[in-house]
Amino acid sequence: MKDFLPAGWGVQEGRGIALVIAGPSGAGKSSVIAEILRRDPELTFSVSATTRPRRPDEVNGRDYAFVSDADFDRMLKAGELLEWTTYQGHRYGTPRSEIVARLAVGQDVVLNVEVNGALALRRAELPHPVILVFMVPPSRADLIRRIRARGTESDAALSTRLVIAEQEIQQIPNFDYLVVNDALEAAVARTAAILAAERARIRRCLP
Q: Could you give the CA distance from residue 135 to residue 143 in angstroms, rounded to a whole number?
């Protein structure tokens, strides 16, 4: 097939994709991302920094970089974050150097960020494609069930998360794709299909 392409065509160096997956807490983003990473050795994960406490099943440096408020302030002042946002009183941010370096050598990166953070990444105007995927559970009842299953949320915290989720859903028109996570395997397949389509875009092949 390469013999039929004009000279110089093919996926170009330094054109990695930033696949940004956002959505309400309880949408199952982490589970989908973990499975896609397991299946796709060419995809890497950008670890966000956060000031929120670590959950029992989370590993520092794998799920998030858990930092103090002082460390987060230092990162902000040093310009080390591409974007940052506050969610339920805790701050989240995307380290600049790691993601820019990976994209610059053509690596595709998947990010798990808050909805406002995803939109901020689009506004950052990186010299690389930023693809925004909004992930939702199939229903409000499913969202409540998933959050309660964690066993880490009080009734007050759950109510707050539901209010935030309703606000976040209003941002769906600002995203590129919508994935309904009704079953893990199906959601993984849908997200993988989005990544495959973006990898095949002509803009990645032009010399």
A: 12
Sheet holding 18-22, edge to edge: 43-46, 108-112, 18-22, 130-136, 177-180
Q: Which of 144, 179, 143 is nearest to 36 (CA)?
A: 179
DSSP string, 188-205: HHHHHHHHHHHHT-GGGT
**Domain enclosing residue 89, as ranges:** 12-204
In tens, the pLDDT along 56-75 reads 888 998 888 999 999 999 99
| Residue % of the chain over a pLDDT of 70 | 89
Point out the least confidently predicted range of 39-43, 64-68, 100-104, 157-161: 157-161
Residue at 4 is within a domain: no
Separation CA 29–CA 193 (nearest Å): 16
pTM of the model: 0.83
Q: What is the pLDDT of residues 118-159, one digit of tens each?
A: 999 988 878 788 999 999 998 888 877 877 776 666 777 777
Phi, psi of 183 (to 5 degrees): -155, 140
With respect to residue 69, please indicate whether it lies within any of the assigned structural domains: yes
Q: State both tokens at 108.
A: 């595709």
Residue 90 lies in a domain: yes
Only one residue has tokens 């199952």, namely: 28
Domain count, the chain: 1
Tell whether 2 is covered by a domain. no
Sign of CA dihedral 63, 201, 197, 167: positive
Return d(Cα 207, Cα 202) in angstroms, integer. Answer: 10
